[in-house]
Amino acid sequence: MQIGWIKAVDFRSYRTLSVTPAPRLNVLHGPNGQGKTNLLEALGLLVTGRSFRTPRTADIPYWGAQSAALTGDLVRADAASKRAGRFGGRSSGSTMGTGSRAANRSSGHARSRSAGKTSTS
Questions:
Q1: Which of 23, 41, 43, 61 has a Cα-to-Cα distance from 35 of 20 to 30 A?
Q2: What is the C-alpha separation between 81 and 79, in angstroms, rounded?
Q3: Per residue in 60-101, pLDDT tens?
Q4: Owning domain of residue 102
């Protein structure tokens, strides 16, 4: 499986994030507290539907934001699959879907050195 692209809005330390990784090797580097682990969490959440850092989706949105949105394109050898998720604030759940199907679940900036494209704000 390969990640074609990932976009996040109000996800952890990112107000907006757009990454198109290189097809092969990508290296994340930067000082502590700049969002490297947040990017890895977003990638893991996109692929598995779960955060490796917390079972509480209320912890995922940017501080003060009501929700966070995460979208991306997962490319498999046989076909492509788009995934999207919206993660609610303190009192709401989250939705993570593949294609047109979605399932409900309760509940800084990194720099990428690669041939891919990265933008943050």
A1: 23
A2: 7
A3: 999 999 999 999 998 877 776 777 766 655 444 444 444 433
A4: 2-115
